[in-house]
Structures are given as structure tokens and as C-alpha cells.
């Protein structure tokens, strides 16, 4: 893949945000007064390598999301498309891929729910795809020990069946980066429910590599994550003041 390869980003933003509690769809909730989705779009458009962002909106929310993008300042060098999403993250990513025009050889998939990923992480992923990896994931080592359990009904103690060696585990983030043809093939061939796109490429038997993630690329999932996101933004504002 050459440095001339053009990069597009698909942002799945069609989730409801059930774990965040009642309210608007998660991507539309505000952080420091600005919708999470706008933070995520800006984080992608900050990379000079990104020339198209495809936002996958809640199924009946595409016109509203289009208006939202029109109403917020976004870099002029980046084009934007909005398409309706599906019932699962996988379906939503697929809808974004289907909308991609020709001419983009590298595709990133980035959760709207990771609004604060720094641009260096985005560029690191793109660079690794340009260097020839068909699939790239940013990731961090774990702080906790992880146990594999035999699931039981809620409230029942769960027997531990294994303790994977922590030093070999990574917590995977987005944006995940792909050679476009590989990602399209993965979405066409893999029908199992998976929780990220890279695992679909793994199922094709193709290599996936890890590059450094960033602690500010965390996923806003539960209410406490909103507190952390506001704190990160406050720290950025304070640092910008100096
Ligand atoms: N049908 C879906 C489900 C999820 N997503 C997107 O996938 C990303 C990661 O999903 P997650 O954080 O799990 O978001 P939700 O599905 O909204 O969260 P929850 O499971 O708590 O409802 C989010 O940007 C979310 O909007 C999507 O585009 N379409
Ligand atoms: C893609 C992802 O963000 C990588 O960690 C994660 O798997 C999304 O999971 P969710 O089930 O949509 O929360």
C-alpha cells in the first residue's frame, strides 16, 4: 500500500447506549456541550490522511445527524456522508462500507463512543496499514488480572475455568485500520456475532497486528466514563490555555 493510498473512516454511531442509562442515543449525548459524535468526527478529521468520513446514524436518525454535521465546524479538506445503521454494530459497519465510493484503499472503523482518541493514535494505525498490514488494531496492556469463567445466572457465583497470562493480553480500541478489500471480504464472509472488525479478519486466517493505543481512546460505555471524558476535556482546555 503506498503513501498515496486514500483513507476513509466509517464511524458506527447507531447504538442506543443502553449501558449509559436513559437518554438520547449515546453518540448524540453532549460532552462539554458538544455531541460525542462531533468529537469523534473531529478526532478522525484531524488526521491529514483522512479525506472521507462516513457516519452511520441511528436507523431513523440520518437526516438529524446530517444537520448536526452541517451545524458544527469541521475541516474543509474532509468530506462527510451519513447513512442509516442497523440493529447490531456489525450491520452498522457494513452499511458504512456499502456507502463507500471507489478510490479509498484504506478504511478505518472508529466507534463514535471513543470520542477522545488522539490524532497520533489514528496516524499510527494508518501508517501500519500503509506499511502492508491488512488489519491493524490499537491496544493497551491490561491493569487487571482476567479470569475466564463458566457463566451462570445473574447473581450466582461463576466458577473460574482459566487465568490467561496477563502479559500476553491487550485491551483493543478503535480506530481499527484495514486494507479495504480485506475488510469488505471479512464482512461478506463472516456471519458470526463478533465484537470488533479485526476478529472477522482473524477468522479469514489473515494477520492482524497491534500498535500502541492510548488511554484517552477509552470507550464511553457507563455513566462513570462520562465523568472521565469531561475530565479529559477539562485538562485539554487547561493545557491549551498555556
Ligand atoms: N446497532 C449498533 C450498535 C452499536 N453501534 C455503535 O458501535 C459503537 C460501539 O458500541 P457500544 O459502545 O457498545 O455502543 P452501544 O451499542 O450504543 O452501547 P450499549 O451496548 O450500551 O447499548 C458505538 O459507537 C455505537 O454507536 C452501531 O453503530 N450500531
Ligand atoms: C470495537 C470495540 O470498541 C473494541 O474494543 C468493542 O469491541 C466494541 O464493543 P461493544 O460491544 O460495541 O461495546
From TrEMBL:
Function as written in the Swiss-Prot or TrEMBL entry: Catalyzes the formation of 4-diphosphocytidyl-2-C-methyl-D-erythritol from CTP and 2-C-methyl-D-erythritol 4-phosphate (MEP).
EC numbers for this chain: 2.7.7.60
Molecular functions per Gene Ontology: 2-C-methyl-D-erythritol 4-phosphate cytidylyltransferase activity
Protein name from the UniProt record: 2-C-methyl-D-erythritol 4-phosphate cytidylyltransferase
Site positions for Transition state stabilizer: 19, 26
Family note: Belongs to the IspD/TarI cytidylyltransferase family. IspD subfamily.
Gene3D superfamilies named in the record: Spore Coat Polysaccharide Biosynthesis Protein SpsA, Chain A (3.90.550.10)
Originating gene: ispD
Keywords assigned by UniProt, alphabetized: Isoprene biosynthesis, Nucleotidyltransferase, Transferase
Catalytic activity: 2-C-methyl-D-erythritol 4-phosphate + CTP + H(+) = 4-CDP-2-C-methyl-D-erythritol + diphosphate
HAMAP family, per the entry: IspD
Pathway: Isoprenoid biosynthesis; isopentenyl diphosphate biosynthesis via DXP pathway; isopentenyl diphosphate from 1-deoxy-D-xylulose 5-phosphate: step 2/6
Domain of life: Bacteria
Amino acid at each position: 500500500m503506498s503513501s498515496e493510498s486514500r483513507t476513509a473512516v466509517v464511524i458506527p454511531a447507531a447504538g442506543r447506549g443502553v449501558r449509559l442509562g436513559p437518554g438520547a442515543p449515546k453518540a448524540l449525548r453532549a460532552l462539554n456541550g458538544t455531541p460525542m459524535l462531533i468529537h469523534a468526527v473531529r478526532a478522525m478529521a484531524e488526521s491529514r490522511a483522512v479525506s472521507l468520513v462516513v457516519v452511520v446514524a441511528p436507523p431513523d436518525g440520518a437526516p438529524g445527524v446530517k444537520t448536526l454535521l452541517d451545524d458544527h465546524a469541521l475541516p474543509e479538506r474532509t468530506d462527510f456522508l451519513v447513512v442509516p445503521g442497523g440493529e447490531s454494530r456489525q450491520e452498522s459497519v457494513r452499511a458504512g462500507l456499502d456507502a463507500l465510493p471507489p478510490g479509498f484503499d484504506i478504511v478505518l472503523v472508529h466507534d463514535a463512543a471513543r470520542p477522545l482518541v488522539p490524532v497520533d493514535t489514528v496516524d499510527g494505525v494508518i501508517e501500519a496499514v500503509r506499511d502492508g498490514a491488512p488489519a491493524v488494531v490499537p491496544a493497551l496492556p491490561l491493569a487487571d488480572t482476567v479470569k475466564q469463567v463458566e457463566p451462570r445466572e445473574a447473581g450466582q457465583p461463576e466458577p473460574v475455568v482459566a487465568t490467561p497470562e496477563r502479559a500476553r493480553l491487550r485491551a483493543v480500541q478503535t480506530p481499527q485500520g484495514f486494507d479495504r478489500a480485506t475488510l469488505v471480504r471479512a464482512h461478506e464472509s463472516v456471519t458470526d456475532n463478533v465484537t470488533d472488525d479485526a476478529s472477522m479478519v482473524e477468522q479469514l486466517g489473515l494477520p492482524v497486528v497491534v500498535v500502541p493505543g492510548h488511554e484517552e481512546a477509552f470507550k464511553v460505555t457507563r455513566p462513570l466514563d462520562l465523568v472521565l471524558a469531561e475530565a479529559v476535556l477539562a485538562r485539554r482546555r487547561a493545557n491549551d490555555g498555556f
